Amino acid sequence: MGAYILRRLLFVIPTLLGIMIINFTLVQFVPGGPIEQILAEMRGEGDVFSSFSGGGNDVGTEETFGSDSDYIGARGLPKEFIEDLEKEFGFDKPPLERFFNMMWGYLHLDFGESYFRKISVVDLVLEKLPVSVTLGLWSTLIAYLVSIPLGIRKAVKDGSKFDTWTSGAIIVAYAIPGFLFAILLVVLFAGGSYWRVFPLRGLTSEGWENLSLIGKILDYFWHIALPVIASTISAFATLTLLTKNSFLDEIKKHYVMTARAKGLTEGRVLYGHVFRNAMLIVIAGFPAVFIGVFFGGSLIIETIFSLDGLGRLGFEAAVARDYPVIFGTLFIFGLMGLVVGILSDLMYVFVDPRIDFERREG
């Protein structure tokens, strides 16, 4: 097993490098950049996208100033000013040199500094991380704690009224987009049109530091209740059906009938024999569930509930063309995803020691 883990860890390097090369290359062909963003703001257009739509008034004329500039919106600005901007952002160097400099910094855990926030990428991620960890961790935990027992119950009661009604509820939950369900929760319980039971902003209340330990815990859960429920709904539906189908496949196998013939109780058969085999596919999906809840859909949920997390950070960095933030977070989260995949394989072995990845690869 040690050799397998070592090979997987070594495979992380070319995989992560390939991710960075592809994304860095694609960015070179995307219109705009941080300099375009600054020029657009100087012209009062708000952001770089207005420049491409032809909005705003030109400052000066092409015949007088900056006519040879490669930047949209640079008309009317001295060439020296543009050159200083390029040097400040490092664009006076060719793309290949910039890429190697960036990766060399990453090897030394130097992820650079945001172009527009004047704060290091690591500090920025750490500042926004609590929101995303809250949504990802609690949503995944609740989804597994509810879905696994419910899926087992549905498998045991397959075809019954309980199975039918819960399946209907699960299908409805799966069909509702997370952001739409989040809006419904806001309307109903956060002062939208009916009851103001839960707060709408932030992870904690003002004066949270002055509360007692119990008060801090209750205040924290009071704030995260609605966002976590909105993030959990789709994962909850998928995991329940996955657990049910896995148990149904295992219940029909011969070893289950043999265990029952020996006089074992139904609980011993289900949780002593079936559970270990049926949970393999559920555990295999854990990285996808966690990463999906951690990253996917977080932008909309964070926006609706006014949470300042990694989803909004990534969107704002993409709009502003804040390349250190974009590539730094891509590297960090890509590495996290690959490591979680390895942890998933280790969980396979923990649940079923009969699995031997080294023998399978050999």
Portion of residues within helices: over 70%
Residue fraction in strands: under 5%
| Structural class by SSE content | mainly alpha
Any idea what the shape is? globular
CA gyration radius, whole angstroms: 26 Å
Number of strands: 0
User: Helical region count?
Assistant: 16
- In terms of per-residue confidence, which ranges show pLDDT below 50 for 5 or more consecutive residues? 48-68
Tell me about this structure.
There is one protein chain. With 362 residues, the protein is mainly alpha-helical. It is built from 16 helices and no strands. The protein is globular and about 85 Å long.
Produce a short descriptive summary.
This protein has 362 residues and is mostly helical. It has helices at 2-28, 34-42, 49-52, 79-89, 95-107, 121-156, 161-175, 178-189, 213-251, 254-261, 266-284, 286-295, 298-304, 310-320, 323-351, 357-361.
